[in-house]
Specification:
By secondary structure, this protein is an alpha/beta fold. It folds into three domains: about 160 residues, Rossmann fold; about 50 residues; about 60 residues, Winged helix-like DNA-binding domain superfamily/Winged helix DNA-binding domain (Arc Repressor Mutant, subunit A), CATH 1.10.10. Helix content is about 55%, strand content about 10%. It is built from 15 helices and eight strands. The structure holds adenosine-5'-triphosphate and magnesium ion.
């Protein structure tokens, strides 16, 4: 069902990601490691989970993982036996988790390994282990995804001292659907519920408001077809639920940053602004402003084109209104 709220797991349910799927296939089979990027709700998990399932690979979601220990345990569970054996050995032989993790990779080295939400593991040790895995098991195929902060950024922009320097994964960036595609997605989704109809004006309005983000379109469709809400209610609920998700994402991003300044920048670029306007509005040092803008664009929260900054995702715009200083 297109409007199911769970990530899709099969090609038959995966709408309009053929190109990206083929590209993922091509890159992975040519022995490259690949990072699948994209803003919230563009369908990253659906693409990589489908790819793993269709290719007898391993999909691991690291949401909530505390460190490499959790990754090692998940990989061991996938490769069958031995989790208990290993835990016993760890106690008696004082084996380190980093060694267990390397071995766990070895057990599954012939399968495609997909690691989602990889930023959750902040341990720098992970990069070292990945390097070692890359060097030892030639041809091992790994796909990463998650949000751009943390490990994913260090994987993709390794500094010369990083263990992964010179081993940067290839990237695939998922874009929101075009207007046409979004409309077709909604219409196809509604066709699976013959008792619920959507009017042409309604399709237009939804696409206007939600802007090609397949996840938000799915929410809307689900609210209408499963929960039987009216068009207006479904749109409102999508904005409400969605902005809650984005608000917590933003609050997470703002932890350990200059929150007040970031919020001011976000409010200024919410409706689009040139660099000079932002600078005037905030009256701060250019370098500080540039750093803030760089962090916001690489986290894919803010868009930039030739010195013009704006926020594309309507739900993020809504969430920014709710950010408290
Ligand atoms: N290509 C697709 N075809 C049909 N439904 C999709 C597709 N991509 C995503 N969806 C739906 O959109 C919602 C969000 O998808 P998914 O979790 O894959 O996105 P994501 O980019 O990983 O989100 P997040 O940023 O929260 O990790 C889910 O309900 C999923 O079923
Ligand atoms: Mg995801």
């Amino acid at each position: 069902m297109l409007f199911s709220l769970r990530p899709k797991e099969s090609l038959k349910e995966l709408y309009n990601r053929n190109e990206e799927y083929k590209e993922l296939s091509r890159l992975t089979n040519s022995g490259l490691w690949v990072a699948v990027l994209g803003k919230r709700m563009t369908g990253k998990t659906s693409l990589i989970k489908t790819f793993a399932k269709e290719n007898n690979g391993i999909y691991i979601n690291l949401l909530g993982a505390k460190g490499i220990e959790d990754l090692a345990k998940s990989l061991l569970t996938e490769s069958g036996p031995k989790l208990e054996e290993v835990t016993v050995n760890l106690k008696f032989l004082q084996i380190k988790w980093s060694m267990v993790l390397e071995e766990a990779f070895q057990n599954v080295k012939d399968k495609i390994i997909v690691l989602d939400e990889v930023q959750e593991i902040s341990s720098p040790q992970l990069l070292k282990i990945l390097k070692s895995v890359w060097d030892k098991y030639s041809g091992i195929r790994v796909i990463f995804s998650g949000s751009y902060v943390g490990v994913l950024r260090r994987l993709l922009e390794p500094t010369p001292t990083s263990p992964l320097y010179g081993r940067k994964p290839a990237t695939i960036t998922l874009k929101p659907f075009s207007r046409e595609m979004s409309k077709n997605f909604l219409i196809s989704g509604f066709q699976e519920y013959p008792q619920t109809r959507i009017g042409e004006d309604e399709v237009e309005e939804v696409v206007e408001m939600l802007n090609g983000y397949v996840g938000w379109l799915t929410y809307y469709g689900n609210f209408r077809c499963e929960r039987k809400l009216s068009h207006k209610e479904a749109l409102e609920e999508t904005l409400k639920e969605g902005s809650k998700i984005m608000l917590s994402e933003l609050n997470n991003f703002l932890k350990n940053r200059k929150r007040e300044l970031y919020i001011k920048v976000l409010r200024t670029v919410r409706t689009g602004a040139r660099w000079s306007e932002i600078k005037r509005e905030l009256n701060i040092n250019s370098k500080v402003l540039n750093d803030i803008l760089k962090n916001l664009t690489s986290a894919m929260i803010v868009e930039e084109d030739e010195g013009y900054y704006w926020i594309e995702d309507p739900i993020t715009k809504e969430a920014i209104k709710k950010l408290r200083q």
